[in-house]
Amino acid sequence: MKRVVLNGLLVGIILFIMSYGGLFLSIRFFPELFLDYNNPLFNSDGSRDVLFYLHAFIISLALSWFWDRFKGLFGGNFVLRGIEFGFVYGLVALLPVMWITFSAMDITVVMVASWFIYGLLQATVAGIVLAKTNP
């Protein structure tokens, strides 16, 4: 369990840096995508902002546990194992969540697609790091 937590924290730090770097780059290069976030649906009073910032660590701990439990199912070198892990997570978890989110909320297909790609990228990076640190 110690390995799961330590690897999860390492992945969390990497995802945190990647997420915020990616956010700034995305706003810079795709500003029209972020106009959709000027919607009352996404405004909060700030009392839950810490939950948003902790997301990278929550997902990384979950993915670390998932990796530790099912790593034997993924073959190849660590990069291929990480990519396969990311795609499995995307198919099993992200696709159904994005489907229900789009069907239940007044958001655009582009927004949901960007969330799916972001989640897929997170899981793939986590998979590569976990395959290297916890083969």
Describe the structure.
The protein is built from six helices and no strands. The chain has 135 residues and is mostly helical. It is globular. The model has no long low-confidence stretch (mean pLDDT 91).
Element layout with pairings:
Blueprint: H1 2-29, H2 31-34, H3 49-53, H4 55-70, H5 78-104, H6 109-133
Helix pairs in contact: 1-4, 1-6, 4-6, 5-6
Instruction: Tell how many strands the DSSP assignment holds.
Output: 0
Principal-axes geometry comes out as globular
Question: How would a textbook summarize the main sheet?
Answer: none
- Are there runs of 5+ residues with pLDDT below 50, and where? none
Succession of helices and strands: HHHHHH
Helix content range: over 70%
Structural class: mainly alpha
Which features would summarize this protein structure in a list?
single chain, 135 residues, mainly alpha, 6 helices, 0% strand, globular
